[in-house]
Amino acid sequence: MKEEKFKISKRLKSFTYAFNGLKILIKEEHNARIHVLATVCVVILGILLKITILEWIAVIFAIGLVISSEIFNSAIENIADYLTKEKREEIKRIKDLAAAGVLICAIAALIIGLLIFIPKIIEICNSN
Ligand SMILES: Nc1ncnc2c1ncn2[C@@H]1O[C@H](COP(=O)(O)OP(=O)(O)OP(=O)(O)O)[C@@H](O)[C@H]1O
Known about the structure:
Blueprint: H1 8-28, H2 30-48, H3 53-83, H4 89-127
Helix pairs in contact: 2-3, 3-4
The chain binds adenosine-5'-triphosphate (ATP).
Adenosine-5'-triphosphate (ATP) binds near residues 29, 30, 87, 91 and 95.
């Protein structure tokens, strides 16, 4: 493979490609909009319930995990649709596996959220 020279301008351009990917995600992927909405709700809840730094780390990690898994899932779906629009058992397997990846991340994020927020909500209910 040909060695390329390191160029700051080229590295910065990579960021613009990545931001373009985010634009595509928000514009075209409806599940991603749900994740963004869930993220906003979780961040507001975190601020209101004054979660600790360690809890913020877990929450931010969970948010990043779910959104990035959704992005990889969308990329895989796009490749699959580019390969063929026909109904194929192989495409079904590929898309179902990618969707399973998102599901696992979403379940892990949900458990993290419940572990952090439920005790705080119970505490508030008991103190009233
Ligand atoms: N070409 C295909 N051949 C066979 N099964 C397919 C094909 N395309 C989609 N499927 C099946 O339909 C499911 C949903 O696929 P689709 O591409 O609509 O994704 P989605 O999860 O609905 O994503 P989005 O809502 O972002 O479009 C897949 O998981 C797969 O089981």
